[in-house]
Structures are given as C-alpha cells and as structure tokens.
Amino acid sequence: MAREQNGIESLGDLRGKRVLVRSDLNVPLDGSTITDDGRIRASVPTISRLAESGARVVVAAHLGRPKGKPDPAYSLAPVAERLGELLGRKVAFATDTVGESASETVEALQDGEVAVLENVRFNAGETSGEDEVRAAFAAELAKLADAFVSDGFGVVHRKQASVYDVALRLPHAMGQLVATELDVLRRLTTDPERPYVVVLGGSKVSDKLGVIDNLLDKADKLLIGGGMVFTFLKALGHEVGTSLLEEDQLDICRDYLARAKESGVEIVLPTDIVVDTAFPSDDRTPQPTVVPASGIPADALGLDIGPDSAQAFAAELAEARTVFWNGPMGVFETDAFAAGTRAVAEALTKVSGLSVVGGGDSAAAVRLLGFDESAFGHISTGGGASLEYLEGKDLPGIAVLER
Fold first, then answer.
1. Annotated catalytic residue: which of 204, 254, 259, 321?
2. Active site residue 12
3. Which residue among 84, 173, 357, 378 is the one 20 to 30 A from 38 at the CA level?
4. What is 39-67 written as a DSSP string?
C-alpha cells in the first residue's frame, strides 16, 4: 500500500519542475570504456518517464569509491554519454555535484531535458557517518530540485546523503526500478510458490550468513557453490586443499547443516569440484582437473563445481517454481572454470515460475556468458540491497520513502 502511494504519480504534474533522480549508474569501466551498461539501461525507464512528463530531470549517482574527493578515474562523464545514447536525447553533464557547474547546468534545463551531475561521492558528505555532515550536503543537493525520485536500488541499503537525507527535504517518490525490485523481493519472502530453491555462490560464507539464516525457514532447498562451498566441505571433515576457506565460519556452517536437517530444508553441496594448482592468470594456461568434493588434493585449488554437480543443480532447478540465485559457482571469467555458472544460468532460463538473478557478480555472469536477459524473470541491479532485504533487514533508502 505504501509503495503504491509513493509512486511517481504521487508527485502530481511535474511539467516544468526540477526532479532529482537518484539512479544507480555504478558500472564497470576499463579506462573510460563501459564494459557492462546493464545498470544504465535499467535506469532508463524512470528517467524517460520523467522527461516525457515534462520534468527537468537531474540525475545523481555514484561510481566506485573515490574517497570523498574528485578523481578523474571515477568521473561519470562516459556514463552520461552512454545514458544519452540509450535515451535517444542529449544529456547535459555538470562537472561538479553541487557547485557552480551543477547550478548552471540545472538552471539551463528546459522541460523534458536531462542532466547528470558529477559523481556524488566526490563530496565527503555523501557517505559521511556524521548526520550533520551528510545533512549539509543533502541540503545543497535539495536546492537543485523541487522533488526527489529514488530509483537506485543498488544503494537503498545505505544511509547516504543522496539516498536518505535528500528524501527528508523534498517531496519524494519511488522510481519504477525500485518499485519493481521490491515487488520481486516480496514475492521471494512472502508466500513464494513452491518448490522454492535458493542458489548461493560467491567467495565467502560470511557474505551470505544473514541470507542463509533467514532463508532456512523459507526455502525448500539451498544449493551451495562458489568459493563459499569449501568452508561447508571442511565443516563436514573433507580436505579442501588450498581452496578458499574461512576457518572462523566452520562452526556456523555445521550449525546451518544441522538446522537444515532438523527443519526439513535440504542443503545441496557439490559432489565434484574442478581444481587447478593456481588461480587463473594471463601468463599461465589453466589446467583444470575434476576431483570428488570429498577428495580434493592437498595442493589443489577449487575453482568451479564439477560437471556432475552442475547437472545435479540443473535438475534441482528444473523442479522449482521459485528460484533466487546470488553468486557464481566458480571463476566464470575464465572459460575453464565457467561451466558451473553457465549451467545454473541456463537452468534458470527454463524455470516454469519466478527466476531471480540477485545482482552483483551473478548479473555480470549472465551478461558475460551471453545469455538473453529477457529469458530470466528478473535480474536485480542491487546485489547487496537484495541480500540485506532477504536477510530481513530494514533498508534506509526505502524506509525514508514510506514515512
């Protein structure tokens, strides 16, 4: 109910009004070349809708972690150019965030035109832990606009000036991207269609503790791959060689395995692993070998789930009606260790129900491996925000919109 009341339509007639949109344009760059424009494309519908309504659209976003001061390596200039290509209209670019260029650029906007401000993290007030410092920066941002639209789902779990504090100072609404993300996440946590299978990968168990803890009461099966699986295998008493291992999480993994057994939730671990003697590098040809998950050699490094496990995971997903996937199954950037991630992604495209790719490296893998994004039910733009929601945490950037 609160979400419907806080959509863009709640702001009324926006023609001629300056609307500050917090988008998530934090894309990977190789120099000034954008290597994955997925987040920019995801931001287009809300920006287009506002421009077409006659609003003067001012886009705020961050890129990387420039530590509170200008750094040319993190400039949003190439992002603004790509956004203009995707929108099919000229996009102005301010070379600062709340300074002279920003003021002049916004002042020059006509109805239906779009401008992008320079990286908000070039100002230390954006991410400050001090409320007063954040508030001061937010007040400067708010002077540039008559209303605020939050559409950067990838940052709504952060209490930052352009995400949280600006919403306290301007009439505010939820953008289409954020609304869609929340609808999908609520479907994953409120009476999901069953069987409900969660696939977790990535490097560390510690990154997914809250998700596992919360979903043990909601999912029917948890499939575990990626670097985090080796802590589970070690918890079962298996040798993991030189594979990634979090010794301090062994007892927690044992507890999860015991809890799952007691509650009837099945935790599915790989039965075979693709190993090598070293991590992939440009100056070395990979030498992948498949070994049993219970018999990884002492000098071997696990880099992907094996072919039998990939097939077994795909079979589990074929039976599912709801799937959430976060984290690759291996080092998917290298062909020799991409098969497990590819198998999971392909299986998700065939799910007869809701399939959700939980942002971050999973979304990057889908694009890198050449899958048609429309084959998935939903690809999230916010890995961290998605995980915190699934952990049951409040998201400050959402809570402030629902006041």
1. 204
2. no
3. 173
4. HHHHHHHHHHHHHHTT-EEEEE---S--T
